[in-house]
Every structure is written in C-alpha cells, then in structure tokens.
Input
Amino acid sequence: MTDLEIRKQQAAHRAIEHVKSGMIVGLGTGSTARHAIAAIGQKLSRGELRNIKGVPTSAASKAQAVSLGIPIIELGPGGVDVAIDGMDEVTPELDAIKGLGGALTREKIVASHAKVFILIGDERKLVSYLGERSALPVEVIPFAWEATQFTLAGFAEALVPRKNECDKLFMTDNGNYIIDLTLGEQRDPQQLNCELSCTPGVVDHGLFLGMADLAYIAYENRVEELS
Ligand code: A5P
Output
C-alpha cells in the first residue's frame, strides 16, 4: 500500500471507532471511504461488531459492502446512526466539497439523515477556503443540460461537463450528468449554496456546509481530529 493509502486507511480507522454493534451506518463513496467499509467488514467477520446495517451512497460502495457480507438496507425515516465519508476539500470549520467521485447527491441525503457525520481524508484535503484546490461538482438532469450549464457559468470562473474514460458524458448512479465548476476565487459558500440550489435543472451540488460533526485528517505521523 502506498503512503497515501496508508494515511487514508488511518483516517478511516479512527472514524470507525464510532461504529458500535447494532448501528445503522452510512457508507460513503471513494478511495478513502473504501477503507472504512473494508474495516467494518473485517470487524464483522472477526465478531468485533455485530448486527451492523449499511446504507451505501453509491453502487460501488454497495458492491463492496455486499462482497464483505455487510447487510445493506435503504435509508429509512430513522436515518443512520453514523455516516462516514471522504471529502475533496474541508475547511477548519468543517465545511466541505464532495462529489469528485460523482456520488454527491446520495452522499448528501445520507449525511443529512445521520446522527453523526464524519469526514475522513488525508492532509491534502484540508484547505483554508472552499474551491481553493478542488472543482465544485454539480449534478444536473440530462434534460436541457447545456442550458443549465449556461446558467451555472454565471457562478464560476470556468466549468466543464465531466467525461468518463470513453470521452462520453459521465453519468451518475441517478442517471444524471456532472458539471465541474472552477470557482477561481474565494466565494461566500452560503450564497453559492443558495444560488446553485435555486438553479432549475440542478439536482444537487457538492457544497456540504455545516453538515459534518467531525473530520479525521491523516498526516504522515498522526491523525488529527477536527470538530
Ligand atoms: C464521492 O462522490 C466523493 O464525494 C468522495 O467522497 C470524495 O471525492 C473523496 O474521494 P477520495 O476519498 O477518493 O479522495
């Protein structure tokens, strides 16, 4: 495993200390969340955790969980006890950008129904303001997506429809497209949140403001908890 993967795993392992037997757990998406799902599967198989149910945020996370024998349920009105997910950027105030894996809409639904929402990542993800390094993904419905993109251009320095490895438009698990916005300068995230949420055609976007309770950031020799 590379040093970077080890850091991601260390952050994930700190987060799963919050997972106790009998809990319903939101299973995030991405290379860091994979470590958390793997660790939950391992604890279940060793009998260190019992009666866990997982709510996956993507088809990929569902497939991983099923392969590890983690029982899967749909998100119900009772929500999840804890949700653990990666992030693309997080500020010291725990505002985040998510969605470079394309699962932002399901991730936000699950996180918004979590008693405790924990972000995990390595030190590259810690920024002083949102948009400092990462693009902001916005999920849009395919109908008139180029018109929606035209509206979104007013909120960004640059933007690009996401493509897959075959150079076709990337499609989310929800059958939608993603437009990646380069913000270009420090923006008021609350205002941008409102602007994007009010744009017809936008399903959801990667701003996760005031949602996380904790973040575990892994450095070379330590994991820092932000709360
Ligand atoms: C998935 O849609 C994303 O929100 C991921 O959680 C985020 O992109 C972090 O992914 P990595 O852990 O792979 O960096």
Remarks:
- Residues 28-33, 85-88, 98-104, 107 surround arabinose-5-phosphate (CB under 6 Å).
